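Milestone M4 deliverable, item 7.
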Amino acid sequence: MMKLDLSNLRFLVVEDNTHMRRIIRMLLTGFGARDVVETEDGAAGLEAFQATSPDIVITDWVMPIIDGMELSRMLRNRETSTNPFVPIIMLTGHSEKKRVVEARDAGITEFLCKPISAKSLYLRIANTIVNPRPFIETRTYFGPDRRRAESSNYQGEERRQQEPTDHVVRPSMAS
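Output delivered:
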């Protein structure tokens, strides 16, 4: 496993469970992170996001006030978000395929099921840093490219067609 320097990154942890927040903070500081901001719900998470400009957001799915899905959609909103390109790692105890697809379609960068391990969290963080996915903007979606691998072999009816309005957006191009 590669060793990354996380000391200059700011993390935002949005989790309603105090014990889980403590575990995530301990893991992040163990990985070398020095700047970890914590909130207990999506509303406070949105405020903290706007105030602190985190480099990576780690959010729970099920929370009071604003849940992780709604928060993710707000963070991906190009009109109102201070950084719609921020990597978002979704933590949840729900691993059904339907939920994974819903999270992917909301612009989640990485998905991690609870209970988490240090290794699984580190790998998700490392993947957002080492293998950043290009962002796609279509009429109905803005977020990381949902395709994980190129497959020129698949020719089925659900193969994504490049539409004239689809284009790849790079974070460095954001204003």
